[in-house]
Design goal:
Length: 309
């Protein structure tokens, strides 16, 4: 289990709490947050993956916050490269009781994605680093937007995650003036809510294609060789590796036109390499195109111009 996923499993509201509790400036992505703050929040929510609370609790644990989530909209598929920072926009509707002050500085809500059948015991999660921003549409409803943040090179994903179904959920926390790092902290005054089963998406490995057509310039009706390579993100190694035995289309667009026509379909070698030959008849652009698979995005090679003389 990776750092961000572990932190989320310890507390469904921890990522949100980092942005609303002034005494705890937790960096969820880089370090998993301040250790004292993490321990406080874990204690608040009971610790472990069961921290995603959906029923009222008594004593020194939070109560169930009177909020619900609906109309979550997230991309049907999220294509993630080998490194960098992938930002995934999400919108959702928040419905709440009149006693819940969604404008309070220590209230936060936001979406998340989880793997597994039971959102109260997720196998893994993807979170956002900042709380959602909401615009009230009535005294008890609001339209909200937020981002999910993915750092593939930081351990947020492994290759085994590619093509898996991720389910959307929503989470909220209201500290109601309580400070988890404070001396007289009362967990029972904090409200939390997590809700699952709000839609699904998949996370796919980003694919890349290259192409080179030669020789150029070339005589009319002479044979040219078109090489290239199909690779895809390897989240286990933060690099791109060859994608073998995949059907790839070689397409051509005549100079001065806007439409590509498929010339032939070939398959990649075990290491992702491509090589074929074709006759050059007129000036134009060649490109390779690969299709989407369950685990991997489609890809388009940058067009290569051939000057026919």
């Amino acid at each position: 289990m990776r750092i961000r996923a572990t932190v989320a499993a310890v507390s469904g509201a921890l990522a949100l709490s980092a942005s609303v509790v002034p005494t705890a400036q937790a960096d969820v992505h880089a370090s998993g947050g301040d250790s004292t703050h993490r321990a406080s929040i874990a204690k608040v929510l009971g610790g472990g993956k069961t921290a995603f609370i959906t029923s009222p609790v008594d004593g020194d644990k939070p109560y169930e916050l009177n909020v619900s989530f609906s109309d979550i909209k997230v991309a049907k598929a999220i294509n993630v490269g080998a490194s960098g920072h992938v930002v995934v926009p999400v919108t959702y509707k928040l419905t709440h009781g009149t006693e819940v002050d969604i404008k309070a500085s220590d209230f936060a809500s936001g979406p998340y994605l989880y793997k597994g059948d039971d959102f109260t015991k997720p196998d893994d999660v993807i979170l956002g680093e900042k709380r959602g921003t909401c615009t009230a549409t009535s005294p008890t409803t609001a339209n909200c937007k937020a981002n999910l943040d993915i750092y593939p090179a930081g351990g947020d994903l492994t290759v085994s995650d590619a093509g898996a179904v991720w389910t959307a959920g929503g989470q909220a926390i209201a500290f109601n003036g309580e400070d988890p790092a404070g001396r007289f902290f009362d967990p029972s005054k904090i409200g939390t809510k997590a809700q699952g089963g709000l839609g699904t998406t998949t996370v796919r490995r980003l694919a890349k294609l290259t192409l080179n057509a030669s020789p150029e310039p070339v005589r009319k009706d002479a044979t040219i060789t078109v090489t290239g390579r199909l690779t895809r993100a390897n989240w286990d190694g933060a690099n791109y590796t060859g994608y073998g035995n995949q059907a790839v289309k070689l397409q051509f667009r005549k100079n001065g036109t806007n439409t590509y026509t498929t010339v032939k379909t070939i398959r990649t070698a075990a290491n992702g390499d491509l090589k074929t030959t074709v006759k050059a008849t007129v000036d134009g652009f060649f490109r390779y195109v690969s299709a989407t698979t369950t685990t991997t995005s489609d890809a388009y090679a940058a067009p290569d111009f051939i000057d026919v003389r």
